[in-house]
Design goal:
This protein is mostly helical. 62% of the residues lie in helices and 0% in strands.
Amino acid sequence: MQPDDVTHDEAWFEALMTTHAPAVQRFFARRTDRCDVEDLTADVLVTAWRRRDDVPDEAVLAWLYRTAGFVLANHRRKGRPIPVDDLPEVADLDDPAWHAVRDDDLRRALAALRPRDRQILLLNAWEGLVGAELAAVLAVTRTSADSALSRARARLRAAWPT
């Protein structure tokens, strides 16, 4: 629940959309067909409105990215429009976004990593998430997120062709 002094009303939602909808659209644009981007973004925003009292003011974008991961996983699994009320508990980490990387050396290095490491690296590099925001998307503590990012970077360095 949000503090009593914070009202998640229509003005709050309009500000959320203005500020964060483009980032959510970019998230989907990197991970799915163009024809699905607007629909999936709308699903995330509808979920944000329905669950507005659950959206933490200190981590709105992280909450949206986490929800977007669930929406995308559901979309891939079902291959058809998804009911936003039935979000999975665990996101599908097999993210094809890394396939969009054009550098062959980087592609091979990313392909050698576990899906979780790729997810962490792409959230950091493409979405710009660090610290508390990365932790919120991964549903771990800040310390765990920092450690996971550090380990993923080390594994990427080890997998990089010399």
